[in-house]
Amino acid sequence: MLHEVKPQDPATIAAIEALEVRLRWLSSWTIHNANHLRESRDGLKVGGHQASCASITAIMAALYFHALRPNDRVAVKPHAGPVLHAIHYLLGNQSLDQLRRFRGLGGAQSYPSRTKDKIPVDFSTGSVGLGVAITAFASLVQDYLIAHGNLAEADAGRMIALMGDAELDEGNIYEALIEGYKHDIRNCWWIVDYNRQSLDATTADRMFNRFDDIFRTCGWRVLTLKHGKRQREAFRKPGGKAIAAWIDNCPNADYAALTYQGGAAWRARLTADLAADAKALKLIASFDDEGLAALMTNLGGHCIETLLDAFAQADDDKPTMFIAYTVKGYGLPFAGHKDNHAGLMNPTQIDGLRQSLGIDQGEEWAPYGGLGDNSATMLRQFVAGSPLARGRAAAAIEPVPVPATLPVPEGAEQSTQAAFGRILLDLSKSGHPLADRIVTTSPDVTVSTNLGAFVNQRGLFRRQELKDVFQAAKIPSAQKWSGHGAGQHIELGIAEHNLFLMLAALGLSAQTFGTRLLPIGTVYDPFIARGLDALNYGCYQNARFLLVATPSGVTLGPEGGAHQSINSPLIGMGQPGLTYFEPAFADELALTMRWAFEHMQAEDGGSVYLRLTTRAIEQVERADDGWQEDALKGGYWLMRPAPGAEAAIVFTGAIAPEAIAAWHDLKEDIPGLGLLNVTSPDLLHRGWSARHAARWQGGDTSRAHVETLLRDLSPTAGLVTIIDGSPSALSWLGGVRGQKVSALGLDRFGQTGDLPDLYRTYRLDSDAIADAAAELFLDR
């Protein structure tokens, strides 16, 4: 419920009410133009969600033209994208050309996009729920920067999510809510457009009060904006309490249907249900049909004064959820209709709306069409004076220096997972500026992914100091973790969606807060798939992070199939904005990690995924550094083939000992046999694909790296490919020069066992490589 706040300025209320009408019209017209006026060459419906826009225009008008501060950041519900474009059209940030091309190539995007839209977009949205949840993690990143002295407390902004109520069905929201409670997040607003209608149905009535309970339990303030000022005034009149009680008890579906039917239907229903209450009937009779319909739909989410009061009440750092009751399709001909989610006004209906607003034909795109000169001038001045119109100071984002090399851990036998931990530990002790910008995070697998030593050195991040009870009691433990504001590890619970949303928020710190962080997240390799939607979401926004996943494939051994990964190499190859490496040796890992820190900062860079292993393998001796350049391109010859050789073994990652052993076993039988170490199937395939596209689209048509590598072989040579993952990650190599491939890898779920048994069972041992090599020559 709302408490009394300082009365709002009537002129401000009137201006925002007028702007709300502009947003409703411009968003509706933008969608109408795309579907009914623009040439359709394929006959497909363009779409655009006019009803979902109309339910939130008042909320967005009050927020963007009054409540927002320059440092606030907003994730806008996906289906309200046209409203955001309309707002920036009024602010002068959006062009008419972009609006005309809404949902067309190069035009305004269907859903707000940081990377594809030309207007300022703080957080991309589209996959519902994720845009909500990331604001909780962005608020945590803001607190991290404040605690580390990179952001002044006075410059803190609110991380705001505008969500449709159907998004509250998304489980990742509650995972984020719980994690946010653990970390005591601040400065976070979630504003629910509570229109109680989704694509298929109306919201279950029994959920009315449950959301309040859930959020209050997690420490949030909940402000419910159910009734607008006009309703509250009517409720104070004789008979008003009965009408208020009727509204509170009206099923969602009934309320929606009556809204669509209009004033006469409202009158008939209220008169029948309140027949015994003479005062209520008299109050109902005091309104004509149009006035009664306006009263019954005067919900809090459509009342500017109510919205401004609510935003003013939450002017502190306490996380707040606003439940703003609204009508889906408010102010449009199909308001309340159960089919209005994807519904579109027809030409007659949009023309009726145009006429009701006094907009002349041909002036539909005019920002203030239908208004007199004085009113238009007043609104222009109001918009120009809004806090958001003053703009945000664009801070220069300084690059984080990266050492010329990262030290390679010593040891004749090493696993890449253990080497990763030692490289990070050495970096944390080095005093290099890079170490201070690294932030690590993990979903309760910090120890088992070898981050423990880094955390011992740099500490857990906590806004309030957290003592290590075991250390204080002098109980021996390898983990000496204390929590404090200077800590550089953010420990998360077991929820992979939260990991990837945390990485996305950290990876956007430069753009969001003006300070670059270099986040590293660790996870069990098979469980990338559990957070895949959030991983894709982070990459879509061009967030920059280093994902370290381990252990890979059946090489995990006794842990069994549930913890063994099969298709993660294909995820790494197929995910835009993410570059996948699978180093076999510690020196490859150090080289790749250094490259990753540069790539995460490059203008044309992105995020990086390292697929590591717990298997300790014998390290190779290097004659020189000549292999490094090729390794960073995706692969290099560990044993170069003789010119015109008829075969090569191609391997990736932990399976290196079997590939090397097989090479030694076969080199006498297959003269000139090559051994190719593919450090990144992703980069090799990407380069090959780009070269083919360039041939027809223009660009660099020089030979791809994989073509250069394979040209050392005879055109008729065969390839044995092997990876502890899906064989298709490497089997495509046969298409580069039309060479025969015998592909080894995982194509079924693993079982428990030791490595000799597992490698034999799944044909990953040196004997299987020998069999595969023989197969290359059987049909010749």
UniProtKB/TrEMBL annotation:
Any Pfam family the entry gives: Transket_pyr
Record keywords: Magnesium, Metal-binding, Pyruvate
Alphabetized InterPro entries for the sequence: PDH/Transketolase, PDH_E1, THDP-binding, Transketo_C/PFOR_II, Transketolase-like_Pyr-bd, Transketolase_N
UniProt entry tagged with the keyword Magnesium: yes
Chain segments annotated as transmembrane: none
Molecular function terms from GO: metal ion binding; pyruvate dehydrogenase (acetyl-transferring) activity
Chain positions recorded as Mg(2+) binding sites: D165, N195, Q197
Catalytic activity: N(6)-[(R)-lipoyl]-L-lysyl-[protein] + pyruvate + H(+) = N(6)-[(R)-S(8)-acetyldihydrolipoyl]-L-lysyl-[protein] + CO2
Cofactor(s) of this protein: Mg(2+); thiamine diphosphate
Domain Transketolase-like pyrimidine-binding as annotated: residue spans: 414-620
Keyword Magnesium: yes
Function comment: Component of the pyruvate dehydrogenase (PDH) complex, that catalyzes the overall conversion of pyruvate to acetyl-CoA and CO(2).
The family this protein is said to belong to: Belongs to the transketolase family.
Protein name in UniProt: Pyruvate dehydrogenase E1 component
